[in-house]
Amino acid sequence: MKGKKIQIDRKEIRFEVLFLTLIGLFLFAWAVIQPVTFSPDEQMRYKVVEYLFRHNALPHGGDPEVLDKSWGISYAFYPMLSYMVSYPFMKLVSLFTMNERALLVAARMAEVLFGVGTAFYTLKIGKRFFKDAYEKMFLCLVTLLPGAFVLFSYVNCDSLALFATAMLIYSWIRGLEDEWSWKSCIRLAVGVSVCALSYYNAYGVILASVIVFCFSILFCEEKKWNFKKLLTRGLVIIAIVAVLAGWWFARNYVLYDGDALGLHITTEYAEKFAEEARKPSNRYTFQMNPAANVFTMLFYQPANHHHNWMMMVYYSFIGSFGYMTIWPPEWIGKLFMVFFLIGTLGILPQLRSMFSLRRSRFSEKKRICGTQMEIKYTYRLSRWSKEAVFHIGIALTLLLPNILNVYNSYVNDYQPQGRYSMPMLIPLMYFMTMGYRRLFEKYGRDSRVGKVFCYAVCIAMAAFLIYCYLFLVLPSCGIKWKKYLIGR
Predict the structure, then answer these.
(1) Are 320 and 147 in contact (CB under 8 A)?
(2) What is the rounded CA–CA span in Å between residue 35 and residue 146?
């Protein structure tokens, strides 16, 4: 896989350092102003972090200190890596103060760290495929989308899932470039381990990683069907994952009578201790309705919702705050819809070549007998295309979180929330940037038009994010900043 050659550019390094610094500072500004009851389930999740802080040990999921009386469950049944990263921040702050607010903000520093890390890997991914304005647009589309940005400002596991997804996609790029050196294998193993200990809705990228790893070794390298290399490197990756992440599932297996994922024990506790209306046995799902199917659910609009399932997921993916009660103006979501539609039109003609495993196509312009002509070439590859294998992984990472989101709402619990589809963020914006680049390269008479558009998108994304902070989040947190700004 031929990525763009990276050269050391001090100007670019200064930009990257400045960008990451600003991201970290703005995330901190979001983290310090939110009450613990502001964002979804943070209060329940923070109980787990507080337990770690007080007892210096991992809690049993059914411990009364972490169990929620209303739902009858706790987030200690699920992977706790995100909370474990919050732990040292709280310990550090406790050396200076035991103020409850200060400790809460300290716990949120783990999410801020994941946000900066996601931006860091997004920078690296963008450098491999885009340049100049398109690289910046890809970066801003991923890192400045309010629906994702807010996840890095309060205690949750979605933030770690996004970080792990970015890490894994970058590990594919490096592995395909150096044909899975041991360093790339270790990088992949660490990424899989982090993802496994983040959130179950991100597990699609683990499957995509397995496919990219196996297909690229078996079909893309000079020696095809190299099972020896696949097994030796694969076993090392499995061993590293077993050490870094396997302990958690082994612990669950022992504590919860063989329930390694903690799903059955969660249902059991919910049935025993939840309020009557929230017991799983009293929950009616679309799957139970013989007159309904998946499509019925997708287009169903409850009386207390402004949109059907699909549109609720879409608009909250763009940005919603609080318990999905604070929304930007709807016209902004429609503007994004137009943006995505045009980007999709740009990417569609490229899909055949992007996913072509054995064929490569390119064209060049020549002047023949005084006439300017475009000559197109197609040739058959002796091995599979690494670019195509990479795009298969990207496509799976785009599709699988949405499939899991639909499945969970249909079978288990109707929750049309965009954050459950958030692991698709980088693949989605990758395809959009590819689409717009093709449109401007093919139809733009002047390359400057494309650059102006890209920078306009960057400015618009930054302005939208700042607007959400100043006019939606701050007022909802009881901070009347305009009063101090205008002196009233």
Answers:
(1) yes
(2) 18
